[in-house]
Amino acid sequence: MTPSPGSPTRPELVVTLPGRTPEELKGELALAQAAGADLVEFRLDRMRREDIPRLEILHQIPILHEWVPAIATVRSRAEGGEGPDDVPTRQAIVEEALQAVPFTWVDLEVARDRPLREALSSSYGRMVGIIGSAHLPAETSPEALLRAMHEATQLGDIGKVVLPAPVRRVTHELIPLCEGFEGTRYVLHTTGPSAPLLRVMARELRMALVYAGLPEGHHRVEPGQPPADRMRLYLDTPAHSPWYAVLGRPVTHSLSPALHHGFLEIAGLPGLYVPLELADAKEFREEVPRLFGLGARGFNVTRPFKSDAAQLATDRDELTVVTRVANTLLPPGDRGIRARNTDVQGLERILQELEHDGRWKEPRFLVVGSGGLARAAVAAGMEVGARVKITARTRESAERLAAEFPPEAVTALPSSALRPEPLVVHTTPAGQDGTTRLEVPIAEALGPGTILLDGIYLPVTHELEDLARSRQATYLDGWRLLVYQAALSFQEFTGTELPWETVLRVAASPPVKRGTSSS
User: Fold this and answer.
1) Which of 160, 306, 389, 513 is catalytic?
2) What does pTM read for this prediction?
3) Does residue 356 share a domain with residue 231?
4) Is 160 one of the annotated active-site residues of the chain?
5) Which domain holds residue 222?
6) Is 227 exposed, middle or buried (0-12, 13-18, 19+ CB in 10 A)?
7) Is residue 518 predicted with pLDDT exceeding 60?
């Protein structure tokens, strides 16, 4: 009997296991089951051929009281995997796997596995369900996509089509196309910038399956896969359950999803938080209203769209008006899309803590940079009554930023005029990845006793930290800022205020991973 393809109103949750050995898969299978997987996907193309017969050891796991239905997938190199393209080898791998494990589904590729479908039907009949899959290039036309889905549903009991796509294509083209799949058992997923979006919408679009990854903190085959445990809770709550996102470029490795999922768990609230990458300011302005229309309850905004967020909103809080940037967007109210700037409040709290602890004794500091976070730092300094200086890559950009604030509170300085400061706040992208270097020579602003506060949390490179050490200054990364602004955004999103003691505990425990930017 063919396994159930899933409810028309709630897709079954598939967790893709990244393991390459039976031993790795053992632990991952238990994690997937604990996370609430309906099915698990074994990526046989990631395994060595000699390890496939050893999959039989999975039956020895004591904690698995019943077998989680499993999908055997051999993704070919031609379709983005690591497996063989020739059908005889693919057939041999699948047959070896079926002898070792009672797979309930086999994923077959439309482009090459029709003979394998016939062989499986002859040998296994209806004991094994077939997922027909097509992995298409980005330039695939709507007509070609529809043909591919038709072929996939003809090949398998469920048809699955995957292609790279920007967010704009998902909202303008792919979601409307799904109306044509009504009554069929299908999956439509994307990779790249929009990867989480169709997964978020899978229930509303009546997909048969939705693919997720292992819970946060564990490796995923595809970065766009949401964590299975949060996806399970999201699917199990009533329709229109809340979802949120961080918007920026890049955002793939942002830690904001993990942080907000932790807050949701602490507060006992449902919801899913995902990263979405937008190509440019035009796509940002067009897609934010559409994403709210698709049910999003709030966005964090990071580089390079904080100014665009403030311009897009028609209901701005005072801090957004002062800084002309926003890192938090809320669904339209009576006065339209709402913008908030929790970066200012987060930085203000850090300044107050440094002052309270006696680490920052003089009410002045230097801001390095002239972007959105620099504006937030200046505003935070004004909130605590500090005198703020600004230096940037060019003198002109520093002067332009300083001119936005009262001259008695803010001064622009060329790098040649820098002297040791009690506090330096770094707000440029330097350290965010392995290529962006610090373009502002700030060594002269650092000295014994200086605190260098970095706007980058868990930076990839150590340039600033090494510079601070060489000048006998103290370096602080941006993890605490990330946590504080996220907690304040979370309150805006949900109306739930987290106990500040809880926020402080999170801020005191940065993850080991070295990573990305300030959101």
Assistant:
1) 306
2) 0.92
3) no
4) no
5) 12-241
6) buried
7) no
